[in-house]
Sequence to fold (782 residues):
Amino acid sequence: MTYPILATLVAVLSPLGAFLLSALMGRRSVSRVLSIASIAGSLLAAIYVFGQVWEQDILHAQWTWFTIGEYQMRVGILLDNLSVVMLLLVPLIALPVHIYSVAYMAGDPGTHRYWMYLSLFCSAMLGLVVSDNLLVMYVFWELVGFASYLLIGYWFTKESAARANMKAFIINRIGDVGFLVGIGLVYAQFGSLDVRYLFGEGGAVTQALVPDGIWQFEDHSLPAVWLTATGMAFFLGAMAKSAQFPLHVWLADAMEGPTAVSSLIHAATMVAAGVYLLARLFSLFDANVLTIVAWVGTATALLGAFFALTQHDIKKILAFSTVSQLGLMMVAIGTGHVAIAMFYLVVHAFFKCVLFLGAGAVIREMARLRDRYRLAFDPQDIRAMGGLGKRMPITAASMGVAALALAGIPLTAGYLSKDLLLVSVFKWGLQRDGLVTLIPFLLIAVSGMTTFYIARCIFKVFFGKLRVRVSQGYLDTRVHVDAAPKSLLIPMAILALAALFPLFSRQPLHIDDLWLVNGLAAGTVSEASFGVLHSLLPVFTTALSAALALLAWRWYVRGRYQADPSQWLYRLSLNQGYLDAAYQTIFVRPFIALGRAAKAFDTHVVDGAVSGVANAGRKLAAAAGWWDFRVVDGLVRLVGKTASWLGNVFRRSQTGRVQYYMYLMVFAVLLVLIYHLVNQG
Amino acid sequence: MITLTHFLAVSACLFAIGLFAVLVRRNAILVLVGIELMINAAILNLVAFGRYDAQFYGGQVFALFAIVLAAAAVAVALAIILNVYQQYNTIDPNEIQDLKE
Fold:
């Protein structure tokens, strides 16, 4: 047990300990302190482990979990570059979110539940990224989904929250089926679930060859289609977890949870678990699967950006933005650029988290505004906001920086990641032919839409005039909106700084020097390899972004709005492609009907059979009783009655009259005499 | 000639009449009469057969016993009837049904 391994165990188990203690202690405010302390501990441990493992030897520790006969299941911790990046990222995002949550959730009853679940989530996520066994990874995968369910439904008394968390859990379940099938297939072919053995350098998966359509590994062989199937199974898991089309519908509804939860789980970490899984298992995916991944990613990116264009709820804009960005990460994986995908994941985690934290601050202040003036509007609706930049300057600045990162404007880390992604995908696309050459151009469209929707969001929220009307003649300038408290602002600002380029590169514009990418990629990434693409592409996209931002400015700040809300494209976007309604009709209603039918069958047929048997038993008992009473006892009674009747018959001869007796006597004598007379003769 | 048979026939008739009286009469004293008649029938039978016992005249002697016994029986019976009358205020045997089941 070396120190890094020990530190990793501390990092994973410390939030778990906080969860268990909070669970045992119930309603005490010390849960808050426990959670923050535990995640801080995890962060320190993670920093240490990162320092020890990044760009150094891979550390791998195993213990025996169980033994069946001669087979030993060994599980443990695998620390390589990929694990420690995620191991560091999660607490780095989680700690600011924890601190932010203190003020954000203040006054809410039952916050001990919130801290409990948050700690559970952090522990599960950390366990997910360091586990060296697919089955253990699956356990943590499920736990993460479960923690997400608990947190989405944190305000479970709200109908919409309860429905949203069920939706999230069920859709995640679909992905979990895929993951489990994948585990089964991998085990069938390789006889092991050890990640390093399978997917490490020269791992078993790379040694499995596919000659003549047979997937061959040592003495196991399956038809080659199973290789594709296995890859698709794991991708299904990633699709559900990372909200890819068509399983993206849960993420928008997951915004029912507290905004701090949205920022941590549904923007930065949990949804990235799918990308992490694909990065980890990358050598398993053959060309067919990767093509599908790329197309699904593209579709998701396009749809997410399209839906984000028209949403009114600020959190929904950000949710669809997340969907879209996850699609981009999937495209990176699908085109074979795993290191770039991970880099994009890390950068996205920072700026998306800042966007959500900022949105949370804005929503909080709008809610307080509504309560102060006793108005009625949705505090999350951007149509009610406006001009908040003057009143909430730090929030505005942080969100502004994050928005620039999302749009990929130079001087931010977002520019570096997006530039690298687009350039790599272009190079990949131009080397191929067929439909896939469209993908890079579609991504340019996504990039444009991204700039537009985030510009729309920022402009409508922070610029212009406050659109909420306050009665009794209050002028806009007299309406009082506070800036957010320090404990909300400081975490946000720190993470916003991380979204700028210095954390990731020494220069703002060139992609030669990205330590993160170089650590994760097989070779080094250099600008020269992209040739002229690298000069043209970023200029073009930045110009496009600037133009679209200007258009957004004209529309939303100047008010010269020119889109028609009743047009079909607008409505399609606003209603999220009517996908929810489609799923409701195609899947939900039939299943509920099936459930009702099963219930009816159970009540009438199954229970009916049971009561039928009971009734039959009762009738049989009644028949037996009748037989017993009437026939068996009847015979006995008959004997008695016969005796009685006989007695009555003979009683009639006892008349008490002497002459009658004498008459009988004479009669008897006569009979005897006649008898003898007859016999004599 | 008057043979033994004639005596026996007369005695039988007497007996039958006496029996009839015992069985039918609604007056206890007339039932007694009937009993007497039956005893007398028996006595007549005895005397009729006594003709053939020249040595001891057994029939005759037994007949004397029977007459005495008849008298005694009547005495006792009358005593019973008197007591019955005192108890039930009637001497119709049909009326006395206390031993009826």
Q: What stands out?
A: Chain A has a mean pLDDT of 85. The longest helix of chain A spans residues 579-651. Residues 582-664 of chain A form one domain. Chain A has four domains: 1-132, 156-241, 243-574, 582-664.
